[in-house]
TrEMBL record:
Keywords: DNA-directed RNA polymerase, Transcription. It comes from Craspedostauros australis. Coiled coil: none annotated. Residues 3-260 form the DNA-directed RNA polymerase RpoA/D/Rpb3-type domain. Gene3D superfamilies: RNA polymerase, RBP11-like subunit (3.30.1360.10). This is DNA-directed RNA polymerase RpoA/D/Rpb3-type domain-containing protein. The lineage of its organism: Eukaryota, Sar, Stramenopiles, Ochrophyta, Bacillariophyta. GO terms for molecular function: DNA-directed RNA polymerase activity; protein dimerization activity. Signal peptide: none annotated.
Length: 268
């Protein structure tokens, strides 16, 4: 699972400033930085990137450790990264649970022993998955049509209880149920989430019809204006934050397109 090691959150008083919020996870930093593809710089600049410095020497940090740890290797973590931008800091954990269970103070980078030193500069650059997959916070994104289940009460009245039960049992997804009070067939709870294949239901209905031209007892069709959208995050952002960020980007692009169309009309 890929982690976004840097956390951003916006100040309400200034939408273009980022602050390190919880130091546990990454987030949407829209408005604070420009994606690298949209920035006018050649390589990188403060508008699209943040520089982090790390300089750790085992011999310098070891005397400050407890007696139980002085003989063990020292683990360099994200806590040792120093940001050159005071409004941005490393995100050390994905969640509070991970922070409580972890034996390290942050994301482990390397272990070092006596006489060893690690010095480096790291660049955190804002980008999108279109440029590179490392900027993609999404693990899975799928959608399917919302099922509309309709029961024909008039046709259903011609069936016996045994036939109704047969209709219910023939659905492997258990999308139908029999009402204990009225004895009628109704849509089962969470049927929208369970329905996948209804071929067996269609076949059973055809066998029960007195005439081939009769209406179906139960109709399952796909809604044309409602969908079930599933998003799984890789951990860099929460799933709901991903969806809202994507909708914001879509809205911005549609507004840009609308403005360009209006400009073309005015020019004509």
């Amino acid at each position: 699972m890929w982690r976004n090691p840097f956390s951003f959150s916006q100040l309400s008083s200034n939408p273009i400033i980022c602050v390190a919020a919880h130091h546990r996870r990454g987030g949407d930093c829209h408005g604070a930085f420009l994606p690298h593809m949209e920035c006018v710089c050649y390589d990188r600049c403060p508008r699209c990137s943040v520089e982090f410095e790390l300089d750790v020497s085992f011999d310098e940090v070891n005397p400050m450790r407890s007696e139980d740890d002085v003989l063990a290797p020292y683990t360099v973590t994200s806590k040792d990264l120093i940001s050159t931008n005071e409004t941005v800091a490393p995100a050390h954990f994905l969640s509070q649970d991970e922070q409580e269970e972890s034996q390290d103070s942050g994301i482990a980078i390397v272990k070092m022993g006596p006489g060893q030193r690690l010095k480096l500069k790291a660049i955190a650059r804002m980008g999108i998955a279109k440029e590179h997959a490392k900027w993609c916070p999404v693990a899975v994104a799928t959608y399917r049509f919302w099922p509309v289940i309709e029961v024909n009460e008039e046709q259903m009245a011609t069936l016996t209880m045994e036939q109704k039960q047969e209709l219910v049992d023939c659905c492997a997804d258990r999308i139908l149920a029999i009402d204990d009070v009225t004895g009628s067939i109704v849509e089962a709870e969470d049927a929208w989430d369970n329905v996948t294949y209804t071929e067996e239901l269609s076949f059973t209905q055809e066998m029960m019809k007195k005439r081939l031209e009769d209406d179906d007892f139960v109709t399952v069709r796909a809604s044309t204006d409602r969908f079930i959208f599933v998003v799984e995050s890789s951990g860099g952002m929460d799933a709901d934050e991903i969806v809202f960020s994507a909708l914001r980007v879509l809205k911005d692009r549609l507004l840009y397109l609308a403005n360009e169309v209006e400009n073309l009309k005015d020019a004509a």
